[in-house]
Amino acid sequence: GPVFALCVAGAGDRRTLGRWIAGLQEANPVLGRTPVVFRLRGDGDGERGPPET
Q1: What CA–CA distance (Å, rounded) separates 22 from 19?
Q2: Pairwise CA distance, residues 40 & 14, whole Å
Q3: Cα separation of 10 and 17, whole Å?
Q4: Is the CB of residue 31 less than 8 Å from the CB of residue 24?
Q5: Model pLDDT, residue 47
Q6: pLDDT on residue 12
Q7: Looking at residue 21, what is its pLDDT?
Q8: Closest residue by Cα to residue 11 from 20, 22, 23, 2
Q9: What is the per-residue pLDDT across 1-53, written as a single tens digit (0 to 9) for each?
Q10: Which three-class secondary structure string do you get for the chain?
Q11: What does the alpha-carbon distance between residue 17 and residue 38 come to, in Å, rounded to a whole number?
């Protein structure tokens, strides 16, 4: 499907990504009703885990 935003966070954890999406929602409240998928990397092994929703 379409990708509306992309974020590459240095920390890459749920907390950082949560703050990022919360900031976007301040100016775009409709994002609160939009499905969001985060794909987080594992423990530096280069493998991707399942998408986080």
Answers
A1: 5
A2: 8
A3: 10
A4: yes
A5: 46
A6: 66
A7: 85
A8: 20
A9: 777 777 776 766 788 888 888 888 898 888 888 888 777 766 554 444 555 55
A10: CCCCCCCCCCCCCHHHHHHHHHHHHHHCHHHHHCCCCECCECCCCCCECCCEC
A11: 8
Tokens standing for residue 52: 């986080």
Identity of the amino acid at 14: R
Cα diameter, the chain: 36
- Find the length of the chain: 53
Q: Which residue has the tokens 């900031």?
A: 23
Distance separating the N- and C-terminal Cα atoms of the chain: 15
Token pair belonging to 46: 């280069």
